[in-house]
Each structure stands twice: as C-alpha cells, then as structure tokens.
Automatic annotation (TrEMBL):
It comes from Eremothecium gossypii (strain ATCC 10895 / CBS 109.51 / FGSC 9923 / NRRL Y-1056). GO terms for biological process: hydrogen peroxide catabolic process; response to hydrogen peroxide. Its cofactor is heme. The active site is at residues 67, 140. This is Catalase. Keywords: Heme, Hydrogen peroxide, Iron, Metal-binding, Oxidoreductase, Peroxidase. Its EC number is 1.11.1.6.
Length: 507
C-alpha cells in the first residue's frame, strides 16, 4: 500500500534538540514576543506566540466519566499453565509465552485531581498487545458491581458525584439510590465498599476481577462461561477510613507515588491470573442468573484455575501520551474470547469505545499506546477523520473492491453460531425484583469479615460516618437495608450514625 512508509506521516523528534514551533520552524528566542516598538501592543503576525497559546488552550482532553483519576505502568503477561482446552487465543498458546501489557488503575467516582485514598471501587484495566489484535480486560478490584440494569448506570454515577445545586458530594443522593428497594441488589458491592476493602493501601496490594461473565472457547469449538481473577502476589493491604482521610490530605497522590517508586526501586509488582469456568448446563442450575453482575460464583463449586502471571516493570515515559490517552474497552477483544449476554457488559461494549471517540477522537486507535502494533491494522472502510496519522492506507480503495484480494478468517474460526440460541420478542426488561437471594452473598461476606477481629466493627463505622450527613428518612432506609444483611450490623450503624448526626450541621 502506497504511503505507509512515507516519512511525512510520522511525527519525529529532532535529534539535534533545536526548538521549533509546531510546524518545524526554528524559534530564535523562546520568550521574546513581537511588539510595536519596545512597549507597544503585540502583533498578530507573531505565529510562534499564537501557536504556543492556541495549543495551550487545547492541551487537555476531557477527563473520563467515570474513572477520571488513575495511574498506570507497562509490563507483561506470562503463561504459567496450559489452558488451551478452555481458550484458543494465541496469547495462551504455550507455557512461558509472554505478551506485552499496559495496566491502568483508577478510582471511579472522583474527578481527575481527586485523592488516591478515597472510599471508592478501583478500576483495574489491562491492555494486551497480542499478535491477534489488542485485548482489553476492563475490570475492577471488586468481583461484583452495584447494578444489573445498564440503563441505571448514568443515574447511579450521577448520585455518586456532585449535587447540581450545591456542587458538593451528597449523602442523600448516594443513599437514596442505593436504598431504593429495587436497587438493593447493590448490597453485596456496598458491603465490600464500606469494609476496609473499600480503600486499598496501594494499587500493588489489590486484586482485579472481571465481574462480568465472558465466553471463552477452544479451537475445537467447545465453549464455557468464564470469570477472571487477578490476585496480587504482594498480599492484600487496606486502609481504615481515618488512615485514608489523613493520606488524602497529606499526600493525595499516594498510590501514584507508591507505584512509581516501587518500579524505580526494581520491586516489580505481580499478580497471578486465575479463571473460573462454568458450562451452560451448570449455569442453568444456578440459584441466580449467570449474567447477574451483582453475584459471585462460589469457589467450592467453581474452583480457581491458574493461568499465568501479570508483572509490571516499566514506568511510562510520558503520562499523558501513554496513560491519559490510553483507551480501554471490553469490546476490544481477540479470537476465542467473547462477551456473554450480561446486559451491563453488552452496554459497555458500545459506551466505552464511544467515550474514547469523544475524548480523544475517532482515530483514537492510532495513538501509539492504543495501536495494535503486534498484529497491525487493515480495513479499507475505516478511513479519514480528524487526526488520521497512519498513512490512511495510502491508495488502497476505501471499500472492498471486487478486483482486490482480501482474506477473512471466519470459515476457520466460528464464533458463536454453535453456542446459545436466543429467541423471543423484542421487549423492555427491567431487572427490578429484589429478593433474599440478593442479600445472601452479602450476609456470607459479613460472616467472612467476622473471622478478622475488628472488620465487622469497621464496616459499621464506615457506613455510619458516611450516612450521618443524610436526612433522617434516608438514614432509616440505610439502617433497614443493612439489617436485612444482619440485624446486629443494622443496629450498630444506627447507634453510631444517630450519635454523629446530632453533632453535624445541616446545609
């Protein structure tokens, strides 16, 4: 294809370090400006000044909504165990194989300049540069989430951000959403969030989970439902509410600094990757839907199987270029790894890539950190658009021309046509029913917390200090919701929150 090797299509840095404006014209004096006389007004012809100021006005891209505040590093994934009976992806092809990877950690609700040590879920996103294309695992540090109806996501995120009148975080908004009866499916995630697990001590000391159910298949066409667990080899470490608040004031970039300094010391953090697998027949016997993002798969029924090891060993050379512009989407996948019918996952397949088209532009995949450099790119119909910098496929026709040869792998790689069969009318489905099954795993977690002294007490304390700012009717709904988990938990929250709310001024 013509043009792909044309030097004019690549932005290169001058090796002689002569400073230029954006179009390559050397600058004589960086701080001089053209004026009428020594003290007169500026001249419009001073392109170097206008070039600098105009770019300065545009040097920020819109922050992510959510997951705006984050950190990241490069490393690799290494296969330690043969799982080719489960997945035919090339990255798992042989034990010992390594694939370059980028990981971005993040908080969820906070703005870009917010603190690292706030109570919030953490994003755990991994981009693998495989020879079959880029693969994104867009995960969290919790195995469940707050919702299972995708249309509730914007509503939920709004309640975790700022009140449109006061521009303050609002306990009434926060708890009003979560205690609405049909939204109490979030209770398992809320329990995790308000335990000490809600504030990881560092990114190196937390796990990552797919949360969603995916579908993996081997090269023989056998498929299974899969969930992925990325477990820290450094051990889990968390902060109390008071420790987190202290660090947020003294060192708001604590986790960013911890990650960078660990890498610079050569203390490369690692995680062991496991999978859980389930057959379609097993899924039909579950007491809950395999597509329910608010549930975990019991390990006794679906044990962890080791896959490999994820290691971070490289600090990005430029944070904006390699982390801020990094674009992750669960739709970015490779052969033999497919999405399931989880409705929240299905919605994310669109929304994540669309967010990057808005933030960075329609050619965000051409930014070096997002390029599928290990597999390369070819699609004659995906052309043009703002900031096209990869040669635009040169003189290649911009459609599938009848006199050109193209290769397609579908005949060799059937995807889903032999898997589930869906049939029924197009209909609106609101997954609203909340029953005892939605509280069972939260109660089990509360009993697990009881095995470690102080953890049940800390959970009650963390909820109480948060809900103390809410109005009494909202507080009562919170007490009742946690009482469904355990009556003692509900009473402990009530006792402390009531005492605290009597001391706090109301807005």
């Amino acid at each position: 294809m013509a043009g792909n090797n044309d030097k004019t299509n690549s932005a290169e840095v001058r090796e002689d370090r002569v400073v230029t404006n954006s179009v390559g014209n050397p600058i004589n004096e960086p701080f001089a400006t053209q004026r009428v006389g020594q003290h007169g007004p500026l001249l419009l012809q001073d392109y170097n000044l206008l070039d600098l100021l105009a770019h300065f006005n545009r040097e920020r891209v819109p922050e992510r909504n959510p997951h705006a505040h984050g950190s990241g590093a490069f490393g690799y994934f290494e296969v330690t165990d043969d799982i080719t009976d489960v997945c035919g992806s090339a990255m798992f092809g042989e034990v010992g194989k390594r694939t370059r990877a980028l990981v971005r950690f993040s908080t969820v609700g906070g703005e870009k300049g917010s603190a690292d040590t706030v109570r919030d879920p953490r994003g755990f996103a991994v981009k693998f540069y495989t020879e079959e294309g880029n693969l994104d695992w867009v995960y969290n540090n919790t195995p469940v989430f707050f919702i299972r109806d995708p249309s509730k996501f914007p509503h939920f995120i709004h309640t975790q951000k700022r009140n449109p009148r006061t521009n303050l975080k609002d306990a009434n908004m926060f708890w009003d959403f979560l205690t609405t009866p049909e939204n109490q499916v979030a209770i398992h995630q809320v329990m995790i969030l308000f335990s000490d697990r809600g504030i990881p001590a560092s990114y190196r000391h937390m796990n990552g989970y797919s949360g969603h159910t995916y579908k993996w298949s081997n090269k023989q066409g056998d498929w299974r439902y899969v969930q992925v667990h990325i477990k820290t080899d450094q051990g889990i470490k968390n902060l109390t509410a008071e420790e987190g608040a202290k660090l947020a004031g003294e060192d708001p970039d604590f986790c960013q600094q911890d990650l960078v300094q660990a890498l610079e010391r050569g203390e490369y953090p690692s995680w062991t990757v496991y999978i859980q697998t389930m057959t379609e027949e097993q899924a039909q016997k579950l007491p809950f839907s395999v597509f329910d993002l608010t549930k975990v798969w019991p390990h006794k029924d679906f044990p962890l199987r080791r896959v490999g090891r994820l290691v971070l060993n490289e600090v990005p050379t430029n944070f904006f270029a390699q982390i801020e512009q990094a674009a992750f989407s669960p739709a970015t996948t490779v052969p033999y790894q497919e999405p399931s019918a989880d409705p929240v996952l299905q919605a994310r397949l669109f929304s994540y890539a669309d967010a990057h088209r808005y933030r960075i532009g329609p050619n965000y995949h051409q930014v070096p950190v997002n390029c599928p450099y290990a597999s390369k790119f070819f699609n004659p119909a995906i052309r043009d658009g703002p900031m096209n910098v990869d040669g635009n496929l040169g003189s290649e026709p911009n459609y599938l021309a009848t006199n050109n040869n193209y290769r397609f792998l579908g005949a060799d790689r059937p995807i889903q046509q032999h898997q589930e069969t869906w049939q029924g009318p197009a209909q609106p489905v609101h997954w609203a029913t909340t029953g005892d099954i939605d509280f069972a795993q939260a109660t089990a977690l509360y009993h697990v917390l009881g095995r470690t002294p102080g953890q049940q007490r800390n959970l009650a304390h963390n909820v109480a200090i948060h809900v103390a700012s809410a109005d009494p009717p909202i507080q009562e709904r919170v007490f009742q919701m946690f009482s469904r988990v355990d009556k003692g938990l509900g009473e402990a929250i009530r006792s402390e929150a009531t005492a605290l709310s009597q001391k706090k001024p109301k807005l």
